[in-house]
Each structure stands twice: as structure tokens, then as C-alpha cells.
């Protein structure tokens, strides 16, 4: 985007640049692709423009207002995406491998798919108290963030996570999937 | 299996189950509340179990959670900036205070030099009247004169003039060393004090 020619545009761009920098520094490509983030920022820009409209109001807008707007925009986008999605979409092949890129040998694929299925089933078999914590950890979240989302103490979260992972490994071991398999 | 291997296998499992159907999925608002850690804890646990077991809900959760984390990080950065600004202000205030104190000390030192005592100094005639003279200090409203010997304050008087004749009632011992000094009072400023000058009434 070029240099804004009027004070309102300049104020919006200044607020959005800061927002964009912060989100980019926090998020990774699994959360927002660059295109998704650009679209989000564009929608926030339009929302700010129509909601505030004057240079003074935009200059006075707080950082938390920007984030609230961004969340509202993100929610709207999610609703629209859900409403527009009519055809079932497979993110990956049934084997679990990505659609793009070089395909591994079929034996390897089968083995990985089988392993994924076994791990998935073992997670499903965990107790209700431990399963969500293990799921979130396997999704890439650390115990501190799990504790925050669930409103638990860090100690309790770490304890449940440790026990949940132990249960998971025990279930897999019972199926012959040991520590030597990665 | 390592944690990383478990993560890869579980990601494949979730991807293999993703059909695009949202039947049974939580509403975006509920996922947003979960990402913000709002709502009943038991409900959060239940919802999290679904969200983390559904590739599509998880993608939405990840995005909303990233926004939440960014907002929190932004607040932290701003808080840090406030702290930094406060620290700078404190440092500036400390520097100014130090400079003011230094300036005050220098002013006091300059004041000592500025209030010069003229007479008597050294050996003086032992016969009264003995007259004390000092330079005027600009803006001074009063001068406090003090005469001391080695043991005590012998005489003191506050006046506006810069000349003082010692009353006859104050008898000085000849050959003995006395000291005197003057303090000028300046409105809105610290007192300006002279150095102590010594004199010895001569024996006859």
C-alpha cells in the first residue's frame, strides 16, 4: 500500500501497521497464512474507516479497540466461511499425507496412516479429564497456555498432562507401538 | 514415541478425519470465548475436547487464540514502555535533583565568598569601641552577627546594617583569640554565611 494521502488514512495505517506487526510476531503460518492475515487486516481497515471516520477519533482509538475489532472481524469471517462451505473438504489425503508435494512410497504411506489411526484411537480412549489437555498439547500448545485456557494452575495442568501422556504411551505400547518408533 | 512423533501422527489422524462438515461443531462465538479463556471451566474442558479433536474448529481456535495472544503481548509491550518512560522520568528527576543540590552547594560556597568580612582581622587595638564591618550581600534583608571565643558565643545580634559597634558591656580579654562571622538572610534563598574571621585584641 502506498503512502496515505489524507490524515484519516494515515491514522488508520499507523494503527493497522502496529496491529499487523504484533499479530505476525505472534502467529505462525498454521494460524494465519499471509493471505489470510492480509485479508483480516483489510477487513479491520474497512471496519475502522466506517466506524470512526474522522482523523481525531482514529488517533484516539485504543490498542484494545483495534484487537476487539479484529476479533469481531475474524468471527464474521469464520461465520461467512462456514456458511459458504457447502462441499465437504478434505484437507489431506485419506492416508493423512498432504495433497501437494512429492508422495512417499505406498508402504510408507500405509504405515504412517496406520500409526496415525492408532495414535488417534489411543487419544480417544483417554479419560475425559486428561484427553483435552493431551489433545491441546499434541496440537502444539505448551502447558502454560493450556493452563490459561482451562483456568487451571500450572501444577495441576502439568500433572494431568504428564499422566495423560503416560496413559497414551501405555495404550500405544499395548498395541505394540513402542518408544523406538518415531 | 517422542512427543514430536506423537504430534505428527495425531495431526495426520485429525487431517484424515476432516470432511468439511461442521455438524456437531461449536459456534464461532463459543470458540472465541474458549480462546479468551471465558466461561465455565467445566464447559471449557468439554468444548476444548471437541475443538482439539476437530481440524476445522482447531484452525478457528488457533486464529482467535493468536489474536488474543497478540493483544496480550501488545499490552505487555505498552506496559514495558510505560515502565521505561517512568524509569527515564525518574532518572531525569534524579539528575535534576542532583544538579539542584550541586547548584545549591555551589551557591552556598559562592555565598561564603560573597559575604566578605572586612574588619577586624588579626591584631586590633584593645580599646573600645570595636567596630565590625562586612560587605553587603545583594538582596539580603538582615544580617546576623555572632562573636565567639573558644568556649562560647559571646555576643549575637541581627540587624540590617553592615556595620556593628560592639557594646561596652561586652568586654574582650586582651591577647585572647576571638572569632566572628555573619549570616545574611536572603528571601527565597538559602542563608549566605561568611567564613569565620579571627582577631586578637592587643595588650597595652
What is the topology?
The complex is a heterodimer of chains A (182) and B (204).
Chain A: H1 7-26, H2 34-51, H3 55-60, H4 63-84, H5 106-124, H6 131-138, H7 143-150, H8 154-174
Chain B: H1 3-17, H2 28-35, H3 41-51, H4 55-114, E1 117-119, E2 122-124, E3 131-134, E4 142-148, E5 153-159, E6 163-165, E7 178-185, E8 192-193, E9 197-201
Parallel strand pairs in B: 2-9
Antiparallel strand pairs in B: 1-3, 3-6, 4-5, 4-7, 7-8, 7-9
Helix pairs in contact in B: 2-4
Verbal overview:
The complex is a heterodimer of chains A (182) and B (204). Chain A has 182 residues and is mainly α. Chain A folds into two domains: 7-84, no CATH class; 112-174, Arc Repressor Mutant, subunit A (Orthogonal Bundle), CATH 1.10.10. Helices cover 67% and strands 0% of the residues of chain A. In chain B, helix 2 packs parallel to helix 4. Chain B is an alpha+beta fold. Helix content of chain B is 46%, strand content 21%. Chain B contains four helices and nine strands; from the N terminus they run H-H-H-H-E-E-E-E-E-E-E-E-E. Chains A and B meet through helix 1, helix 4, helix 5, helix 6 and helix 7 of A and helix 1, helix 2, helix 3 and helix 4 of B.
Q: Briefly, what is this?
A:
With 182 residues, chain A is mainly α.
Q: Could you describe the largest sheet of chain B, including whether it forms a barrel?
A: 6 strands, mixed
Quick one: which chains have the greatest interface? A-B, 67 and 55 residues
How many domain modules of chain B? 2
Ends apart, CA distance between termini of chain A = 46 Å
Give the oligomeric state: heterodimer
Attribute tags:
heterodimer, A: 182 residues, mainly alpha, Arc Repressor Mutant, subunit A, 2 domains, 8 helices, elongated, B: 204 residues, alpha+beta, Immunoglobulin-like, 6-stranded mixed β-sheet, 3-stranded antiparallel β-sheet, 21% strand
